[in-house]
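Q: Arginine--tRNA ligase, please. Structure only.
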Amino acid sequence: MTDPQLVLTERVQQALAAAFGAEYATADPLIRPSQFADYQANVAMSLSKRLRRAPREVAQEIADRLSGASGEGRPFPGTVEVSGPGFLNITLSDDWITGQVAELLTDPRAGVPETPSPQTVVIDYSAPNAAKEMHVGHLRTTIVGDALVRVHEHLGNRVVRQNHLGDWGTPFGMLIEHLLDIGEEAAVAQLEAGEGNAYYQAARAKFDSDPEFNRRARARVVTLQAEEPETMRLWHIFMDATVRYFNKVYTQLGVTLTDADIAGESMYNPMLAQVCDELQEHGIAVISDGALCVFPPGFTGREGQPLPFMIRKSDGGYGYATTDMATIRYRVQDLKADRLLYVIGATQALHMSMLYASARMAGWLPDHVSAEHVQIGSVLGSDGKMFKTRSGESIKLLDLLAEAETRAAAVIAERDYDEATRAEIAHAVGMGAVKYADLSVGHDSEYVFDFDRMLALTGNTGPYLQYATARIRSIFRKGGIDPAEATGPIVLGHPAERALALRLLGFAPAVLEMAEGSVPHKLAAYLFETASTLTTFYEHCPVLKEGVEPATRASRLALLALTLRVLGTGLDLLGIPVPERM
Ligand code: ARG
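A: Structure for Arginine--tRNA ligase:
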């Protein structure tokens, strides 16, 4: 265990138990990073009431136990001081930090443990709609979901990706008829190019104005529902072309989704009748105004009336809720999920909580399985409205990503690289910038899409972190040293070395926190702080410069090698590509 916060928590708990009795052994010592020391523990204040003693006195007693003044146990890995109304200021010893860093140096995982009890984590993300354009909202659920996939796989959990494509429903009647009208080849070309929206609008216009087309489209819905072979052949042509476009976006982004992860709405079609029957038979769903509905407890409308979760409309049709009930049953019963993550827009919060409540009622979501809505906030334009183009039409994602690359190329224009290297860097920086913008803010908060801000080389941006790794690599290149060979030993002289070393110990906890709470922005914040600490280190701690003592140089190179491993692994877990040079 190298996480200082955990180590200190354990030590203070032991001191609490020794001083005040075993019942305090699990009290939270409230260890936090501090301005005045490495950490502070605030537990004395909260305990003083319960113990009916002055907080400073309580703090002093804990401090005495910790520093061994009262004679027990192992030496404390630092010093403790009581300050103010009863804070415990804790400073770790350089020896202890050095020892922990030495341990991390021998660990290719930089301290991140593999989970002793792997879980099956089913992650629903991306999920664009075939009949419409993939928009920046889908971009964000794709990017956040993929980061969660990466972190769970790194920890050794079994991850099942589920791309819940919107690939079924009544609009497909007119989409298929339009395909027949314009010809398979033309349709495929248009869809592959990402013109799904224009395609949809053309079909829709005919549906609204041309009675004959309208009749054909409706008839087509019937043969689609019946999965009649010729209709299914046409549906496949439409879907395959559409998916090829989605795949272009995934490839461009470096997202790990493949065709094998597609589990769209169509996949659940054959299960829906049974879903409804089963719920009705068990009295979980009841007929209300002709529709089949679940009324999960605790959900009420404005006048206090119970809210329906409608799983079959009065015309007999199934909807989004029906399919989602089926996703839960399938993922728990067939995929054997321990944990379900639905990475979906925050606007669907009510749908998701009614879904979980209904599934719990049905017994399809047992208590030991957790179901979590990872709410994705909207991406806004500079006008504060949903992000679109300047002219107000929605933007084509591949165009947007291409623009990110062009702008990234401009950022590195001055550098002296050949064409191929330049293109590689522009790609990594462009995609890194876009992805990091989605990941560095809380996944449920809105933010304004702004190329200039996300591509900046300073501040909390993807390019800043990429640059931090490239800069370390360039030192190793210049010195002709392989980072794998930079093994120290570590000696902490300058405060900037100490600060960097201490920071590196926080990597594993940041990774675990991200996985546990589905909070990529916490890992992003940690990486940004690490890169900032590194910047200070550079200012004060020359490495290759003449006159630097060999032992100091060896130690600094080892710190840099470990920092590179931490930043590189961390960025990889977020799905941010890391260029060798920049
Ligand atoms: N296709 C939906 C949309 O674009 C998202 C589907 C999310 N997944 C789910 N199981 N409901 O809004």
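A: Brief note, in case it's useful. The pocket of arginine is lined by residues 124, 127, 129, 164, 166, 324, 327, 342, 344 (CB under 6 Å).
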